[in-house]
């Protein structure tokens, strides 16, 4: 909600006794964001030692211009960053990315390939493109690839339930052979695709899946790597909803404060920690969130 709507809501809830203004809400948010800085540094230190971190970004507006909110997520921690773009130059301004030496999971953001030690592509994301290709071209290969990816994920889940940490080498080899066989089939079918733009998009999709095959199939080799980027996408829903409900930010400072505050609030939720009590501790200088 925007600051004026928050003030109106709290004044109504307090039967007019609080007499809050939009400025007083903004002042509280500014103090909240400032008090969060030490905790956020500790959270980033925690993420730096994680083997796998998921990331995503969503567009928002700041004073009418397109900006972004990027998050970095694991099961019990999420950190949000205000970004003016998704470029390599902008990403290099994030200390976390410059230091992180693990696996980044994302939705095929090629700029991110300049960071981290390895990368996993979100297969749910590519499945959407594969299904669209089937609709546009009527070719069989993309539907078969969807079935194969889903079969791989099902097999992985079954092995994880049995305590495996990676898929047996023989089964990986079989799956990879099927994967590349379907891509070869796709190349043949693409030659007969009649619609010009569908043909181009299909060729680009085939090229992407071939070039980044290691990244699409990394979840087979290491079960700590997820099949998709859903964790990060779920953590971004709050930011997307805020854009729909309250619109953009008037100032960059509001954009940055929002990211700091949401880092604390959403991490508290993930850890099932008391919201009011831990916000109080934050303001007192004794935060319990690390």
Describe this structure in words.
The chain is an alpha/beta fold and 290 residues long. It folds into 3 domains: 1-35, no CATH class; 38-120 and 230-284, Nucleotidyltransferase, domain 5 (2-Layer Sandwich), CATH 3.30.420; 123-221, no CATH class. It is 60% helix and 12% strand. It is built from 14 helices and 5 strands. The protein has a 5-stranded mixed beta sheet with strand order 3-2-1-4-5. Helix 6 (123-137) packs antiparallel against helix 7. The mean pLDDT is 93.
List its salient traits:
single chain, 290 residues, alpha/beta, 3 domains, 5-stranded mixed β-sheet, 14 helices, 5 strands, 12% strand
Annotate the secondary structure layout.
Blueprint: H1 3-13, H2 22-35, H3 37-48, E1 52-62, E2 65-74, E3 77-83, H4 88-91, H5 95-99, E4 103-106, E5 118-121, H6 123-137, H7 141-161, H8 169-190, H9 196-211, H10 213-216, H11 218-221, H12 230-246, H13 252-270, H14 275-284
Parallel strand pairs: 1-4, 4-5
Antiparallel strand pairs: 1-2, 2-3
Helix pairs in contact: 1-2, 2-13, 6-7, 6-9, 7-8, 8-9
Low-confidence stretches: none
Q: What overall form do the CA principal axes indicate?
A: elongated
Instruction: Tell me the count of domains.
Output: 3
Identify the strand order in the major beta sheet. 3-2-1-4-5
CA radius of gyration is 22 Å
User: What is the architecture of the largest domain at the second tier of CATH?
Assistant: 2-Layer Sandwich
Individual helix count: 14
- Largest sheet composition: 5 strands, mixed
Q: What is the helix content?
A: 55-70%
Mean pLDDT: 93
Beta content comes to: 5-15%
Briefly note the CATH topology name of the largest domain. Answer: Nucleotidyltransferase, domain 5
What's the helix-strand series? HHHEEEHHEEHHHHHHHHH
